[in-house]
Specification:
alpha+beta, 4 strands
């Protein structure tokens, strides 16, 4: 239950970031950087009386069904929640805090801020096995079956909408949309890598028993130990290898400093860990 509450809270936060980026930065500048939201911006330019939030809800129903059937009911359920939350937040902005014109005359800076906000929000949703709906569902399907990075999958799914943007808003706005689309795919991958980053730690220490106990009892992690021999001294040594998150690494490092200042430690960033205690293998 606690994990489900955290999932919903993170997904809701992601929807808020995406809604702010779309409504206040991309839509006023007619930057349709892919997605159902981008398509809604294009359609809204022809039919301004139809709220963008309503357009998004209508277009996503078919893709909801595809997400549930192809990816599974858990993904589909979370995506439905996230998508309706996103559309609802945009409708709220339209009614309560409407924007009449772009916030600035500088389109590029608004593009950058809008894409950072939407990319961050989408990565929060993807990291909780959900999406903001629309063509994100297609991206998730591409990611599942073709094994492309999720950012590249979003790029593939949204390319066609960017072409429509060129036909609707002209070559200049279309080029901004294309730049935004590429930026979005890169930002999503970078954020997701950051969310999932762990530290692979290799430790050589005379206090191996105390370190192993700290890893298993205090950090609730396991480790691999193996024998090695020093090339210079030819002394027999025990090597400890473990994988922990960043906060756990700081605790482990401080603990080792206290008990063995002569310990030898190497650290590597690991962007994805599959297995017990980390991401379950699908």
């Amino acid at each position: 239950m606690k994990e489900k509450i955290i999932d919903m809270a993170v997904i809701t936060l992601g929807a808020i970031f995406v809604a702010v980026g779309l409504y206040y930065f991309l839509a006023p500048n007619e930057i349709a950087a892919g997605g159902i939201s981008g398509l809604a911006i294009i359609i809204n330019s022809y039919f301004p009386s139809i709220p963008m939030g309503i357009l998004m809800i209508g277009m996503e129903i078919i893709l909801f069904t595809a997400g549930i059937l192809i990816i599974g009911p858990i993904f589909g359920g979370k995506t439905i929640y996230c998508s309706f939350m996103l559309s609802g937040i945009i409708l709220f902005f339209e009614k309560v805090m409407p924007i009449q014109k772009p916030l600035s005359d500088d389109i590029f800076i608004q593009l950058v801020i809008g894409i950072i906000l939407t990319g961050f929000g989408m990565s929060l949703a993807f990291n909780r096995n959900a999406s903001t709906g629309g063509t994100d569902i297609i991206a998730k399907i591409i990611n599942k079956y073709l094994k492309f990075n999720i950012g590249k999958s979003v790029l593939m799914a949204d390319a066609l909408i960017t072409v429509f943007a060129i036909g609707t808003f002209g070559i200049e706005k279309g080029m901004y949309a294309l730049v935004g689309l590429v930026m979005n795919s890169i930002i999503i991958d970078r954020f997701i890598e950051g969310f999932n980053m762990c530290k692979q730690i290799t430790i050589i220490s005379s206090e191996k028993e105390a370190i192993m106990e700290f890893i298993m009892k205090d950090l609730d992690r396991s480790a691999t130990i193996y024998d090695a021999k020093g090339a210079f001294t030819e002394d027999e040594k025990t090597v400890i290898m473990t994988v922990v998150d960043t906060k756990q690494f700081i605790r482990l490092r401080e603990f080792i400093k206290k008990i063995d200042k002569r310990a030898f430690i190497t650290v590597q960033n690991v962007h994805e860990v599959l297995g017990e205690g980390f991401i379950e293998i699908a």
